[in-house]
Design a protein that fits this description.
- The complex is a heterodimer of chains A (about 200) and B (about 180).
- Chain A has 10 helices and no strands.
- With about 200 residues, chain A is mainly α.
- In chain A, α2 packs parallel to α4 and α8 packs antiparallel against α9.
- The longest helix of chain A is centred in the middle third of the chain and has 34 residues.
- The radius of gyration of chain A is 18 Å and the shape is globular.
- Chain B is mainly α.
- Helices cover about 80% and strands about 0% of the residues of chain B.
- Chain B contains 9 helices and no strands.
- In chain B, α3 crosses α4.
- Chain B is extended and about 105 Å long.
- The chains are: A mainly alpha (about 200), B mainly alpha (about 180).
- The interface between A and B is large, with 53 and 40 residues.
Chain lengths: ~200, ~180
């Protein structure tokens, strides 16, 4: 666990051994208040227990080191956006790793399609895959990671964190109507990609 | 452009002596327009269905949207392990300062389990609430039905007795009795 924390600490440029000031007890309150929602959102983005724990830890490390340890004005907005960004970065990294792995497997033998975007595009999904729950979830996660940031934020906050449009708007600094438009665009884009994937 | 048109509108309103409509009127018109547009632009409208039936591109689009919605529902329906929050808290608290790690709140966080939301908590009472509501509705209906039947029964009975008395003792006496 410490090794993992150390690695993420180095990734995000925070020395883990650097301790947090005692006046930061508010972090524990934030964790208590929003922890459950964050874990649910991270689980839906990542779909893996260990990744969720790592992303959660990174989010609170960011929070602890934000503005020299001062409490941000909009804590909820800060942690949700940070958690979403951290999770998507991890997802992308995982996809790259899987792509490398699938390339290695393809070099050796013809294995089952690994659900990274490129790996999926290289393979022809069978009709059974079309209705495979795990496959659909993985492919959706891949495509969500590919979305432009402004669209992805709305999808993750509205659909995966199940926040209302007004809340999403206030977190992202946009109006609720704009959030609706972005969500609609994101769904259209995802639909196009998923249809293309089906055709291939 | 908008300012100009607003000014023109104001000038015309003042010239004609009419007052500008209030925000409520605007809201009503907006909601009526939205309703009208919504009713004519529904996906299950006849003209839309007819087009979709003949257009492979639209079919593909709809299939894609359906697939995205299905995948989103699947992602949302997958529950994480009950102890995931606890493990995440343990890992996150583990990198905080020793004094924070040892705080009573941190200890509670390390043992935190997901709490059901209000809607989830109430969902187990949904069935009972529906039953109670149904029973209440039946009682109300029965009460209304029984009382209205009683009234009807009483008025019919009175009518029968009135006819009986009218037949045997005369209409005048019967009217006098039943008037009282």
């Amino acid at each position: 666990m410490f090794d993992k924390a150390l690695s993420y600490g180095l990734v995000w440029g925070f020395p883990v051994c650097e301790t947090v000031d005692e006046s930061q007890r508010w972090i524990l309150s934030v964790m208590q208040k929003h922890g459950q929602e964050l874990v649910t959102m991270l689980w839906r983005i990542l779909g893996n227990d260990q990744d969720v724990c790592d992303a959660y830890q990174s989010t609170f490390l960011h929070l602890a080191h934000c503005q020299s340890g001062q409490k941000p004005r909009h804590v909820k907005a800060y942690i949700f956006r940070t958690a979403s960004n951290v999770a998507v970065s991890m997802l992308r990294r995982r996809l790259v790793e899987r792509k490398g792995l699938s390339a290695a497997i393809a070099g050796g033998s013809s294995g089952k399609a690994v659900p990274s975007v490129d790996a999926v595009q290289d393979t022809f999904p069978s009709p059974a895959n079309e209705f495979d729950s795990k496959y659909l979830q993985d492919i959706l996660r891949c495509y969500i990671a590919r979305l432009p940031e402004h669209l992805r934020d709305v999808i993750t906050l509205h659909d995966l964190a199940e926040l209302r449009y007004a809340q999403v708007g206030s977190i992202l600094g946009i109006s609720a109507a704009t959030a609706r438009v972005y969500r609609c665009k994101a769904i259209q884009l995802l639909a196009v990609w998923m249809s293309k994937e089906r055709q291939e | 452009m908008t300012t100009t048109s607003t000014n023109v509108y104001k000038e015309t309103s003042f010239a004609s002596g009419t007052q500008s409509p209030g925000p409520n009127k605007c809201r009503q018109i907006r909601s009526r327009l939205l309703r009208l547009v919504g009713s004519s632009l529904r996906l299950d409208a006849g003209w839309a269905q007819k087009h979709i039936a003949d257009c492979p591109r639209c079919q593909l689009r709809i299939i894609g949207v359906g697939k995205v919605e299905m995948a989103l529902s699947l992602v949302k329906s997958q529950r994480h392990h009950l102890d995931l929050l606890m493990r995440a808290n343990v890992q996150a608290v583990g990198v905080l300062k020793h004094s924070l790690r040892e705080a009573p709140k941190a200890e509670r966080l390390k043992q935190a389990l997901p709490e059901p939301t209000l809607s989830e908590g109430l969902s187990k009472y949904k069935h009972s609430a529906a039953n109670v509501a149904a029973c209440f509705a039946i009682l109300v209906l029965m009460k209304i039905g029984v009382f209205s039947s009683m009234d009807k029964f009483q008025s019919r009975g009175q009518e029968v007795f009135r006819q009986y008395y009218a037949m045997y003792i005369g209409q005048d006496l019967a009217d006098e009795i039943f008037k009282a």
